[in-house]
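Forwarding these from the shared drive since the link keeps breaking.
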Amino acid sequence: MSISLPLLLFFIVVVTSGAATDLPMTAAADLPFPNELAKTLSQTPTNFTLPPISQSPQPSAPAPAPPLPGPLVPALFVLGDSSVDCGTNNFLGTFARADRPPYGRDFDTHSPTGRFSNGRIPVDYLALKLGLPFVPSYLGQTGSIKDMMHGVNFASAASGIIFSSGSELGQHVSFSQQVQQLADTVQHFILQMGEDSTAKLISQSVVYISIGVNDYIHYYLQNESGVQKLYLPWGFAQFLASNVRQEIKNLHNMFVRRFVVMGLAPIGCAPHYLWEYNSEEGECIEEINDEVMEFNLVMRRMVWELNRDLPDGKVIFCDVFEGSMDIMKNHERYGFEVTSDACCGLGRYNGWIMCLSPEMACVNASSHIWWDQFHPTDAVNAILADNVWNGSHTNMCYPMNLEQMVAQTGRP
């Protein structure tokens, strides 16, 4: 194994410190929450000047096998964090990047693309189920409407619902900025296709949202700005859900009618926290998982309210915690041998230092649940995508799964 000492020491600081560098941010939503937090959340927009890149990143969306004849929806639009980033952060000045080996070693191209996995991420599997090609990164596009007709991925690793969540790692595109990028894309479609054709395309497409984990990893759990004194876990979850609700309503005003909202995974079982909290035998950190479950419960209630308030829309909530815990509890049935140790990393549970080189990775990632400190393997992503699609392993989506939603709303 060959890792330079300065690089290793840097990542030791990044992983173990709770101090975040103050980076610019946009104004927070007008919501009822303490003024102290409002001041923290209200700053100026991020500068998106692209940093020097040591090498050209691999394409974020290489063409897979040809999609099925007649896609079930016109397009798939993705917003979120590293769970669904397919290459956005390749173009940003950040340490939250997955554009170096061994990331992507088991992907279709056997090369890194910016996906935080050894292979595919859930939206790759769902795109194929919908009869679509892999969805490309927004920042990797040329601006051609042809390149965006089947969807765009706006997700950015380290991003959160709170603008500054994850900012200690560098630049990212926050959730509210991603929504604005989608709004810009819709306007681009209108200019090229007209409003009626755009409204039809967008309303029949699916918007997939996977966001919120960094608001816990990089904000609440680190008690940034004394947030734990301002909010108990339940109140913090409601604050986050209120922001997501408003952004979904904003998307609804842009013709979006089909939403898939993902809950949070059991990050208390992630190798990093097993290492940080000195888990004795790989048992999950329950105090963290309790907060995740509260967030998911609040989000599920929020989705129920949206379905009530937006009668012409369909919003489904998928409880990733529920699906992931089923995998962990029944790992042998799913074919997993290693449940606590990451395939790639350093330290106990491979949770101390992030995945930096091929020499740090295990031989067979498919036998592991976790790929690195925080992200699951391709094999887990495939199972979770199956559950989102039709609940083939665990019914974790409410009030219906994606296949049922598409069937109810009809094909284009």
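-- next protein --
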Amino acid sequence: MKKEILTLAFARAVFVEFLSTLIFVFIGLGSALKWPSALPSILQIALAFGLAIGTLVQALGHVSGAHINPAVTIAFFVGNQISLLRTLLYVLAQLVGAIAGAGILYGVTPAITRGNLAINELNQNITPGQALVVEIILTFQLAACIFASTDNRRSGVGSPALSIGLSVTVGHLVGIYFTGCSMNPARSFGPAVVTRRFSSVHWVFWVGPILGACLASLLY
């Protein structure tokens, strides 16, 4: 473990997790901003999040694995795929990257358009328990897709970037109505820090994705 942290490859991987999460959060949240002249559609937001992930996995997956998500990183640790040290530094890099991405978006967006910076919020008609179940299910299918599409034991995995991007897209097509769709604690954490708006149900966007991803890891 000590040797791992001293390598250039390890440092590059941690930096890539920071950078890729920054870009993902900037693009994803940016697609959900409410410009006076053109309000975003659910399809637009879902495609932006999905295409961003697919692009980043294709571009940077060979460097770090392109987790871009603390829940995914923790699930890889639970599945004994990565070390504890890599897990901790990846998660830290992802959280800092999410804050940076949300902060940059906040800085370049007109005040009239920023709103709440697309933070995750529960639909007023659902309970925290219901929201938790939604986040568990959505993140389970994402993590299962990631494990399946990157499994060297399988001969026909297809394109991981395409599969994972579509998984994120379909999650948003459903989840936006319930929770704004997190599936990623970093995505929820970044804008909450920048806008200083931590609701009493912010825990849902940590517990749900982590439980869903870890369940997929244990079953796969």
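The CA atoms of residues 99 and 190 lie 4 Å apart. The mean pLDDT is 95.

- D.
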